[in-house]
Amino acid sequence: MDLTTATWTDVRDLEADLAVVPVGSTEQHGPHAPLGTDVLTAEAVADAGVERVDREVVRAPAIPVGVAEEHRQFPGTMWVSEDTFRDYVAEAVSSLAHHGFDRIVLVNGHGGNVDALREVGGRLTRAGEAYVVPFTWFEVVGEHTADMGHGGPLETALLRHIEPELIAEERIEEARAGAADGWGDWTSYVNLAYDAAEFTENGVVGDPSEGSKERGEELLELATETLARLLEAVAERDVSRPEHR
Amino acid sequence: MDLTTATWTDVRDLEADLAVVPVGSTEQHGPHAPLGTDVLTAEAVADAGVERVDREVVRAPAIPVGVAEEHRQFPGTMWVSEDTFRDYVAEAVSSLAHHGFDRIVLVNGHGGNVDALREVGGRLTRAGEAYVVPFTWFEVVGEHTADMGHGGPLETALLRHIEPELIAEERIEEARAGAADGWGDWTSYVNLAYDAAEFTENGVVGDPSEGSKERGEELLELATETLARLLEAVAERDVSRPEHR
Amino acid sequence: MDLTTATWTDVRDLEADLAVVPVGSTEQHGPHAPLGTDVLTAEAVADAGVERVDREVVRAPAIPVGVAEEHRQFPGTMWVSEDTFRDYVAEAVSSLAHHGFDRIVLVNGHGGNVDALREVGGRLTRAGEAYVVPFTWFEVVGEHTADMGHGGPLETALLRHIEPELIAEERIEEARAGAADGWGDWTSYVNLAYDAAEFTENGVVGDPSEGSKERGEELLELATETLARLLEAVAERDVSRPEHR
Amino acid sequence: MDLTTATWTDVRDLEADLAVVPVGSTEQHGPHAPLGTDVLTAEAVADAGVERVDREVVRAPAIPVGVAEEHRQFPGTMWVSEDTFRDYVAEAVSSLAHHGFDRIVLVNGHGGNVDALREVGGRLTRAGEAYVVPFTWFEVVGEHTADMGHGGPLETALLRHIEPELIAEERIEEARAGAADGWGDWTSYVNLAYDAAEFTENGVVGDPSEGSKERGEELLELATETLARLLEAVAERDVSRPEHR
Amino acid sequence: MDLTTATWTDVRDLEADLAVVPVGSTEQHGPHAPLGTDVLTAEAVADAGVERVDREVVRAPAIPVGVAEEHRQFPGTMWVSEDTFRDYVAEAVSSLAHHGFDRIVLVNGHGGNVDALREVGGRLTRAGEAYVVPFTWFEVVGEHTADMGHGGPLETALLRHIEPELIAEERIEEARAGAADGWGDWTSYVNLAYDAAEFTENGVVGDPSEGSKERGEELLELATETLARLLEAVAERDVSRPEHR
Amino acid sequence: MDLTTATWTDVRDLEADLAVVPVGSTEQHGPHAPLGTDVLTAEAVADAGVERVDREVVRAPAIPVGVAEEHRQFPGTMWVSEDTFRDYVAEAVSSLAHHGFDRIVLVNGHGGNVDALREVGGRLTRAGEAYVVPFTWFEVVGEHTADMGHGGPLETALLRHIEPELIAEERIEEARAGAADGWGDWTSYVNLAYDAAEFTENGVVGDPSEGSKERGEELLELATETLARLLEAVAERDVSRPEHR
Questions:
Q1: F212 φ/ψ sector (left φ>0, alpha ψ -120 to 50, else beta)
Q2: Keywords for this entry (chains A, B, C, D, E, F) (predicted)?
Q3: Could you tell me if residue E2 is inside a domain?
């Protein structure tokens, strides 16, 4: 049940304790993909996952601005500090738990949010306020995951499938030409870069031309299936905390 | 230019320093109107206002969860603390200013956000980081403003105009029957209530049946025109701070 | 019972759960009225209100520095950030509640404090720590309220009644000459100004010559009577929080 | 110049960079002395010191609630957390510095505030925002200092001199009978107590009957003279920070 | 140069801008390995790395308590919140930068610290305060890294090499018997566990009997060599921030 | 039992509720004594005290960076803000209490930490989380205490006894020559200095040549004996909070 379109009486009448919160970012994704990529993909995966399971699940509105200061050199990128992001997500999630929706999956579309969401999940779960786990769609798509870049094959593919008009097809070649091969600037297993602009000229990592619409369809199917399994696991899990040894 | 669908190169090529950020809330609006009312109305007004002016304006994604703990007794209502809300809005806005979009109107759809947005505007403006002013659509619609309730005539009207399928028409009578006449519980000019549930049974204030589609159209036109004028004023204003006396 | 002059054993022997906390500001009030105007008026109203009711009421010392950065261009104006002000008031109030004085009226003399005090009241009341409501004297004086400015008719009148020697009568004409007609600089129902110096040369809003001693007496009587009624209402109110719907 | 009674134009016309801020506490002082003791004594000393020097000095309103949780078992005692106290004092002081009053003495009447005020002084001074030093009157009265208790000889004496009607003379014997000899409960040079109620039954430490009016007069003279010397030193001091070695 | 044993004049006479800060944790490492494992290993690697390079490097004292709440069910485990840990590390590092040691490697021995240290590095580097990168020894030891558990082969091996007397050899079998095979409890690529006690009975992950002294020697050599290369890279890197696009 | 070298099973098997946490600082101690002086001395005293008592006591790792910004002009000095220091110590201590070690002595070696540790002790004790008292070794050594400076007779003596190789004997004369006689720059009983560099050229206060090895041995014995008595008192104390009066 989508909170944006439901009434409070609809929610009251629901038999459910499961919720999903899409979490994205508004940030550069190269000259060919929209700044909203991470919101749009997170929402698409969340919606498909919720539809796949045979349970009632509350679907919260997407959180649109995340941890993205690493893209600050690229116009239009928005961000908040990690502290503020954690608090905003944690408190929004707590308000769901207040109504009994206390098993929550954060469906994430942005790599920069991953650490912060895990921290939020731990904070709320250990405090017994809610059981909260983050799920990042491009980490769960099997062998595709290795191709994840930024505005690269995976994100381009998924967008071509779900929002094809938002990919500037005429700039794919430009995007490819200015792209970096990999994320970061590594020495001794350490990424020496903190800003994406240190290693990519146009903000792209990976080759977007390898992201076909068909691949996007497959990615969505993989992510959906995995999310559905996770939702089942979260619903059934014994979330009581272990005893002190 | 909508940041969600634009690329960073689109934003780079823009000649603009003006931006709007829709700010809403996901909270109960009675048995007949959706929890997303304040987001949907803020977005509709923001989009119409941006379209009306003869200037380039950046349009950020809407902030979906606000200051709404006063509705916490009604299922599905989401909220964050006022501190966290202020920080989230202020930092998101600062990231726009970082790219030169440093004249910003916060187009707000929720009464509970008003004080916090004014505080954020003051904080950023006085610090010289950006010139930021909040605009709350139902405060600017002339004599209609006096009819503002909660899920009442104004919000119902505007939704019937912009998202008619989201109004549960079959529950309008129920909504009306359980509604309060006015917001709050007043003695000596002081509102003694802090939770909406102290004075409204079903979350409604005002009579939604007085909110026709036509009235909604008029409200949108009034809000749009007023926002357009404000955008011009914000664009032209001398925002330097006064001298110490 | 005034906490400043009472001993702890006096307080221990009191049968009471009601308290008032005067809250003011030390800030410019034009060339003719003292920087302490908002403290002095808040204290006068608080004391008169306490005396008027037929109940024991604890009277805390006045909080002298508030939310007044908007007057920062005028020498002598003191302020703290809104965050710090809220915490200071909230914690001071909580310490009263610790002793059982957990129904508290914040008697306020400064417009800039209004939003922050309402937020503090909500925070403490919803948390069940104390029932706290703010009361701002110039908002409760009937038709006079429409004349409220800054260092204008109302404040000048009240001071002439309670502290006549603190009005520099010889500068009333100067104060009037440099005064603004209204508070703020409005376009499209939005106040575009954040600093008082953007719209008033000498810090005055409204005509102080319309603030006679007799009017001040009437204002005090109105505020006193209203506060007394509020104190009764606060004492009698069922402050339990509503059930979850 | 007293900020409470001065106008902003009076302050503007002042040639000064020196200010004093009285800092007190509203807390138990035994059955015989008022809860406001620390505010009243701090104000008396501050006023006398300002009058003694041959310079213009701005006198801010007293801060009435301080670090006093150690007295929380005694009705009427008010307090805020140390964090909030530090922020409130620091920001109030910074607002004075904003107008050029950037050499500031915090005239303190409460032992529990001492550490926090020193921390605030260090924070502002090292940041170059203002030069701020705390001064606690009962630490500067020569051999009398050794007699400092709580509601004991020194405070009782000073109050008998400055506010004789606020000492409940008929309870002096009771106060003396229930008093502790010294502050704290010491083992191995460590005070094992955190609450005054751990070592004093009625909140008194020291013998109030040894606090005559004459002694109070002498104390005020000593404190005044010392404060005057300090004000001169603060006015003349080179407050630039040392070079990095 | 070890800050613990050097004098300030020694440090003053140094030609250097490079520093290392060992960061550990005091937390359970099974029945056979000490709670201090992560501090001891971080220090050993840091010292060996500093010795290997042909540059002067400042060596700060190790930070002994980190992000380890996940081990809270095991007696003796210490931790602080992630917020506090980040602030403590960031401010300690900033104090080094104050003296010109503004290229800093955080030599880390604990998995739970990784995210927080990366965040600190980003915060300080983007602010231009210092260039700070974290280095976690067990992530840089080539194919060994895949064997990393907790109190498992790698940590046991390294301790047997550097502090053999701290491994309780008589409990290795017990440690092995109660160990988990892998870290976490995974479904759909998501770790559903937040506390180590959810998946390991005795706190061990991996087989400590596979951690020979010889393997430990090899691990130290690998980590040392990698750290030395990193120190060179950090010393030589252009750390200016990229231009806005 | 030393937490660094014990296993969690060792700690589990302990019958104890008493713990010590050494707290130091890494800061200048003149040209002759190491930056780690306050850590080394705190650890030596803590270890000797623990050994002296006939009880099981948990010994936590030392906290190495404290409140030392006052020495910031001297290279190599590290510090964190007082807020962060308090939080780090308080949370580390709370994690010990979580395992039942809820009577805790903070064995401190640095004057700058004293106020902050007392505040932490009050915060945790009043909240009922743990009973925590700070103990600063140079405050408990009888008449020697009066000789305490900085890198002066006491610290030099103790180091000569416990870590003689860390005293640069060849620079004792230099240290003495540049030393200040006393700590601070006093007028009217107020220390006008906030940075040590305002009153000492080389960072030394007091004459280190008066700190013989023999004196160091005596100091350690005095501190050990006093700490042992304190540990007994802390173990036996009724730590319930007093009743509200």
A1: beta
A2: Hydrolase, Metal-binding, Zinc
A3: no
Looking at residue A228, its pLDDT comes to: 98
Would you tell me which residues 48-77 of chain B have a C-beta closer than 8 angstroms to some C-beta of chain A?
A: 58, 60-65, 69, 72, 74-77
Show the domain range for D224. Answer: 8-236
Q: Is residue C90 part of a domain?
A: yes
**In contact, B213 and B157? CB cutoff 8 Å:** yes
Q: Which of residues 4-23 of C touch D (CB under 8 A)?
A: 4-12, 14
As given in the structure block, the two tokens for residue A35 are 């700044």
Smallest Cα–Cα separation from D44: which of D125, D104, D108? D108
ipTM of the complex: 0.98
What are A34-59's pLDDT values in tens digits? Answer: 999 999 999 999 999 999 999 999 99
In total, how many domains does chain A have? Answer: 1
The CB density around residue B10, as the number of other CB atoms within 10 Å, is 18
**F55 SS3 class:** coil
Residue A95 contacts residue A19 (beta carbons within 8 Å): no
DSSP state at residue E60: P
Please tell me whether residue B34 adopts helix, strand or coil conformation.
coil
CA E133 from centroid of its chain's CA atoms: 12
Residue D35 · residue C4 · CB < 8 Å? yes
C-beta separation of C196 from C72 below 8 A: no
Structure tokens at C146: 């429409």
Q: What is the pLDDT of residue F56?
A: 98
Dist. CA A134–CA A122, nearest whole Å: 10
Q: Which two tokens stand for residue B49?
A: 């206002």
Helix (H, G, I), strand (E, B) or coil at F152: coil
Residue D165 CB burial class (10 angstroms; 0-12, 13-18, ≥19): exposed
8 A C-beta contact, residue E164 and residue E172: no
Burial of A85-117, coded b for 16+ CB within 10 Å and e otherwise, reads bbbbbbbbbbbbbbbebbbbbbbbbbbbbbbbb
Cβ neighbourhood burial of A212 (10 Å; 0-12, 13-18, 19+): middle
User: Would the pTM of this model clear 0.90, i.e. be above it?
Assistant: yes
Strand partners, E150: E205
Characterize the bridge pairing of strands C58-59 and C103-108: unpaired
The interface residues of chain E toward chain B in range 206-245, judged by CB-CB distance below 8 A, are: 244-245
Q: Which residues of chain B are within 8 Å of residue D99 when distances are taken between CB atoms? A: 244
pLDDT digits (tens, 9 = 90+) for F125-151: 999 999 999 999 999 999 999 999 999
**Residues of C in Cβ contact (< 8 Å) with B204:** none
Q: What does the pLDDT average to over B179-184?
A: 97
Mean pLDDT of chain C: 98
> Is A95's CB within 8 Å of B81's CB?
no
Q: Name the residue type at position D40.
A: L
What's the pLDDT band for A148 if we cut at 50, 70, 90?
A: very high
Match 């990999």 to its residue by tokens. A182
Residue D244 in any domain: the answer is no
Helix or strand holding residue E22 (H, E): strand E18-23
Please tell me which of the candidates B73, B75, B243 has its beta carbon nearest to residue C243: B73
DSSP class of F243: P
Q: What is the CA radius of gyration of chain F?
A: 18
Asked whether residue F29 is domain-assigned, the answer is: yes
Does the beta-carbon distance from D245 to E99 stay under 8 Å? no
CA distance C152 to C29: 8
CA–CA distance, A19 with A59 (Å, rounded to integer): 6
Please give the Cα distance from B183 to A25 (Å, whole number): 36
CATH number of the domain within which E25 lies? 3.40.50.10310
Here the tokens at position E32 are 């056979």
d(CA C148, CA C164): 19
How many Cα atoms sit within 13 Å of B192 on the Cβ side? 21
Q: Which two tokens stand for residue A130?
A: 């809610």
State how far the Cα of C226 lies from the Cα of C23, in Å rounded to an integer: 17
